[in-house]
Amino acid sequence: MNIHEYQAKELLAKFGVPVPAGYAAMSVDEAVDAAKKLPGPLWVVKAQIHAGGRGKGKFSELGPDAKGGVRLAKSVEEVRANAEEMLGKTLVTIQTGAQGKQVQRLYITDGVDIAKEFYLALLVDRETGRIAIVASTEGGMDIEKVAHDTPEKIETLTVDPATGLMPHHGRAVAAALGLSGDLAKQAGKLLPQLYNAFIGTDASQIEINPLAVTEDGKLLVLDAKVGFDNNAEFRHPDIQELRDLTEEDPMEIEASKYDLAYIKLDGNIGCMVNGAGLAMATMDIIKLNGAFPANFLDVGGGASKEKVTAAFKIILSDPAVKGILVNIFGGIMRCDIIAEGIVEAAREVDLKVPLVVRLEGTNVQQGKDILAMSGLPIIAANDLGDAARKIVAEVNQAVPA
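RESULT FIELD:
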C-alpha cells in the first residue's frame, strides 16, 4: 500500500524526522488557507498523486509550456492561481503512463533555501533478507538514471537484523554523502529515526528524494515516498485509513476484497494462475509466443469456488482482454474447484473471448470432466507450452494484426 507525500511526512514526523511545515488541501480555498498559515515569503504547491516525476510532469489539459506538478509561489495569490490550474487536472509523469492521474489533492509547504540535495532510502533487500540503506550524493534526480550512468555514486549497506541499526551505519551514510561536522551528527540522528519508522510501520520502502541541506545548515526531508507491506496491514489500522482508493485501479480494489493478488498490465491475454512463481512463468511463456499478458492474477493456494468466480469476473471486466489463459497446478488448490469456478463465472458473464485451460494435479480428471461437460467453448491444453500457443493463436485469429 502506498500513501501520499503529505501523509508520509506526517507519519515520519511522528518519529522525529525533520520535515518542512505544510498542509494538505482538497480545494482552492483550502490551499489559500494553508498558505496563510505558513510564514512565506516562498511557498511550494505540490500535486499529490501516487507517482514520481511530478515536477517534470505535464498536465494533459494544459499546453506543453505549462508548469509541472511541483511549483514555487511567491505570494498567496500565486498559490491560489496554481491551485486553480492544478486541481481536477490530469498530471502525466514518467511513472503514470500516458493516461496520467487526476490531481484531487495538493500539498502546500514552506519554501526552503537549498544548498545541496541528496538521495536516501530504506528498502527491503530480497537477496539478503535485510533492510538496505541506499545513499547517493545525486539527490533530486531519477535514481534509476544515476544507477545506470554513474553507479559509483550510489552507496548501499545492509542492517543485520540480529543487531539492528548501529552507530556505524550513520557514520557510513554521512561519509557516503560527504557530510562532516554538525551535518554528520544530524545524519547520525536522522537515520535511526527513519529506521524506527520503517520497523514501526512495517514499511517496505521509505524513499527520501531529496534530502536537503538548507542554507542555514539543517538536514531536511523535502520529499518522501513510503510504501507498506500489505501482509502487515492488519497490525496498522491507522495506516489503512490513509489509503486513497481513487489512486488505485478499480479492478485491483475489487481483487483486494477477495484477497486476490492482481496487477493490471498492458497486454490482451488475461491470466488466472495459482502461485506467484507459476504466474510469472505463465506471463513469460505468453511473451515467448509473441503476445503480452493483460494482468498478473494469483488466486492463491486454497481458493474457494467463489474466489475463483470473482477472479474470473475481474479479468473479464478489463475491455483490453481478448483471450484468457487459466493455468492451474492443483496442490492444496483442487482442480475441480477451479473448474467449477470457471464454469460458473463464464456462464454469469456470457463469455465471448477464447478461453484456454490447463489443469494439472489434485483431482485433475474431475476438473477436466467438469469443463468438458459444461457445454462452454473451453479449449483444453496438455501442458503450459501447449496452452500458451493455443491462446496466442486464438487471440491473433480474433484480432488481426
